[in-house]
Amino acid sequence: MSTVYTITASEPVNQQIYRYLRHEIVTCAIPPGCLLSEKDVSSRFNVSRQPVREAFIKLAEAGLVQVLPQRGTFVRKISAQRVADGRFIREAVEVAVVRRAAQEASATGLAALEHNLQLQKLAAERHDSQAFLVLDDEFHRLIAESIDCGLAWETVENIKATMDRVRFLTLSKVSPPESLIEQHWKIYQALVAKDANAAESAMRTHLQEMIFSITPIAEQNSEWFEAV
Questions:
Q1: Which of 92, 94, 97, 102 has its CA 20 to 30 Å from the CA of residue 159?
Q2: Is the dihedral of CA 171, 174, 178, 180 positive or negative?
Q3: Residue 89 to residues 9, 80, 163: CA-CA distances in angstroms?
Q4: Could you tell me if 37 and 87 lie in one domain?
């Protein structure tokens, strides 16, 4: 944890620290079982311990860390049950969003989605997993924003932290970017055709990928997962 980040005045300090740590946990830079020290993190970000403590609380609420009294704050192993629960809630929200987007998405919104898909293709060609994950999230966020419903995406983002850890692990073998891009294109094409049923079907298929990928990923990375 030697990287030093610059805290800006653009948003609350605890939010920035949360986002940085969330990213590092999700992308495996900070592995399960790792002890997070308030002192070390506050030194790293050059801030007081209070915003660090607040960021730790938010990470705990997202299921990424566990605060153990008298012992410290540790990065949690992945809970398959939490992944399943998060996926179920995400599907319910995003299916409703994509059905409405099929009826209401503007030409500008659709153009933004098409541009995003082109960037996804470039990221896949460069084998840039982290850039692809950011673009993947942006694709889903853009659908919500195309119907002026950014709150729907905020809701999804708040519950999918544990899912994101599995997503990162699946990119190399189980769910390669090329397969996910194809699924995204089907969602996009249904939106262009204003076909709500096709958009719903494509979105469900896409989000259910997690159901089929988590078992082989858990088998390949058993040390990352909680015992059932």
A1: 102
A2: negative
A3: 33, 14, 11
A4: no
Residue 5 pLDDT: 66
Residue 86 amino acid letter:
G
> What DSSP character marks residue 225?
B
Asked if 36 and 21 count as a contact pair (C-beta separation under 8 A), the reply is yes
pLDDT value of position 1 = 44
- For the chain, the residue count is 228
Element (H, E) at 94: helix 80-104
The number of distinct structural domains making up the chain is 2
**CA angle in degrees (0–180, nearest 5) for 27-28-29:** 95
Residue 105 per-residue DSSP state: -
Q: Which amino acid is at 177?
A: P
Q: Helix (H, G, I), strand (E, B), or coil: what is residue 47?
A: coil
The Cα 103–Cα 188 span in angstroms is 13
Give the range of the structural domain holding residue 147, as residue numbers without chain letter.
80-224
Residue in 134, 167, 122 with CA at minimum distance from that of residue 28:
167
Contacts of 213 (CB under 8 A, 6+ apart): 166, 170, 174, 175
pTM of the model: 0.82
Instruction: Please choose, from the candidates 140, 161, 142, the residue with its C-alpha nearest in 3D space to the C-alpha of residue 55.
Output: 161
Q: What whole-number distance in Å separates Cα of residue 15 and Cα of residue 59?
A: 10
Q: How many helical (H) and strand (E) elements, i.e. helices and strands, does the chain have? A: 11, 3
Query: What are 194's two structure tokens?
Result: 């204003």
Q: What is the model's pLDDT at position 4?
A: 53
124 and 157 belong to one structural domain: yes
